UniProtKB/TrEMBL annotation:
UniProt keyword annotation of ATP-binding present: yes
Species of the source: Pseudohoeflea coraliihabitans
ABC transporter domain location: 2-230
Protein name per its UniProtKB record: ABC transporter ATP-binding protein
UniProt record similarity statement: Belongs to the ABC transporter superfamily.
Stretches of the chain forming a coiled coil according to its record: none
One GO MF term: ATP binding
Length: 232
């Protein structure tokens, strides 16, 4: 579904992504782990089109998307939930959700929004309220719900558990699992390694902009090696 080959990316002279290759299949969650500043967020921004790659290829279902505009990548079926959640405080919960429909051709708003509002009753109850009245956990839910209305095929999620209480984190990861079970290819960047290992299928470890270790989450030896490398 998502295939990246020998991706390089710079901020000015700083060579942040140094030859990353990875694949994520439909119905699979890939965990992307690594210490602060190794390039995880920059990797997601390259895939979503927010930062242009210097070289290498990014394909979504065989279609080259590397370096094209974020809106076009979005229309090709890729959505990103960024670390800062991008909730618009001047808009209501429902209006924030409707932003997820922008650019969809022939979309019937109600038919796309209703199943998502049914899945997120707390957001449905607060549909007419300003998004600023939501708690941090509810804002993260809204950020996830907003991409779900467009039924993306590839989802990039950057540190969804950051700053949230354990109960809410469990709810967030349950939603990520549902996305996978609905057939999405999910790339999950997380610092919360233990929780993330419980949800992802495979993982890669990034150091200085390169994949230095990879494994299956159900492989005990691979998990132990990852935890040792991260010293967590
Ligand atoms: N807009 C930018 N301009 C210049 N340098 C940047 C920019 N954004 C990030 N960097 C630098 O690029 C490197 C990789 O940052 P990135 O945010 O991708 O890392 P990360 O692994 O996601 O870390 P974190 O977990 O802290 O978010 C860091 O050295 C960071 O300081």
């Amino acid at each position: 579904m998502l295939s990246i080959k020998d991706l390089h990316s710079h901020y000015g002279l700083s060579h942040v992504i140094q030859g990353i290759s990875l694949e994520v299949a439909a119905g699979e969650i890939l965990g992307v782990f690594g210490r602060n500043g190794v390039g995880k967020t920059t990797l997601l921004k390259n895939i979503a089109g927010w930062v242009k790659p210097s070289s290498g290829s990014i394909e979504l279902n065989g279609q080259a998307i590397g370096g094209i505009e974020p809106d076009a990548i979005n229309r090709a079926g890729l959505a990103i939930v960024p670390e800062d959640r991008r909730i618009f405080p001047g808009l209501t919960v429902q209006e924030n959700l409707e932003l997820g429909l922008l650019g969809l051709k022939g979309a019937k708003p109600a038919s796309k929004l209703n199943p998502v509002l049914e899945r997120f009753p707390r957001l449905a109850e607060r549909a007419k309220q300003s998004a600023t009245t939501l708690s941090g956990g509810e804002q993260q839910m809204l950020s996830l719900a907003r991409i779900m209305v467009a039924e993306p095929r590839v989802v990039l999620i950057d540190e969804p558990s950051e700053g949230l209480a354990p109960m809410i984190v469990a709810e967030i990861f349950a939603i990520v699992r549902e996305m996978r079970d609905a057939g999405c290819a999910v790339v999950l960047v997380e610092q919360n390694i233990h929780e993330a290992l419980a949800v992802c299928d495979r993982f890669v470890l990034i150091e200085r902009g390169a994949v230095v270790f990879a494994g299956a989450a159900e492989d005990d030896a691979a998990r132990a090696a990852l935890l040792e490398k991260l010293a967590v």
